Input
Amino acid sequence: MGILSYIKEEIEVIKERDPAIKSSAEVLLYPSFKAILRYRIAHKLYCRKHYFLARWISQRTVRKTGIEIHPGATIGKGLFIDHGSGVVIGETTVIGDNVTLYQGVTLGGTGKECGKRHPTLEDNVMVSAGAKILGSFTIGENSKIGAGSVVLKEVPPNCTVVGVPGRIVKRDDRRLLRSEMDQVHLPDPVLSDLSVLKSENENIQKELQKLQKKFAELDNVD
Output
């Protein structure tokens, strides 16, 4: 695919997934647009073993956009990085098609692995702002990672992950459409657990009150 094809493709991706876009010309101002196009060039150089030149392009891109994509990463079609500042994508990261990343996302390693050190994100994954995915495991297709989550282990397809460390919440294995990729409507298992504890505590209080009442009645009989 030539550079003009990449440009057209990236323009359509950004227009599709960012409602703030009013014209195609605005896309040229987006840091993610610049970062992804430069990554494509750097990646080709990296694959041809022009490592220094590939890294030179990627490091200049970091300074200009705040988005760090190692030229060795493998990225499919339709990657969208919204806002983008602080995004880090490691060397052995593999990203499928139609993936969405928000600002502050890290696709990194743990520092304890060799070879494949970074995560694999399958098609249609969304990673919300500030989330960290660390290690050489797979995030299954159509999954969501909640804002601020820290994911340290495999995530099956069609799941939502929230919390620190990340906890998996099933979504009935229903396919997650790209039109549903927002950062707000995510399950909150911690809140659910607190609600259960609150309900159980209320039931215990009621039982205690019943027992206290019975003991008081027994005392009166004596």
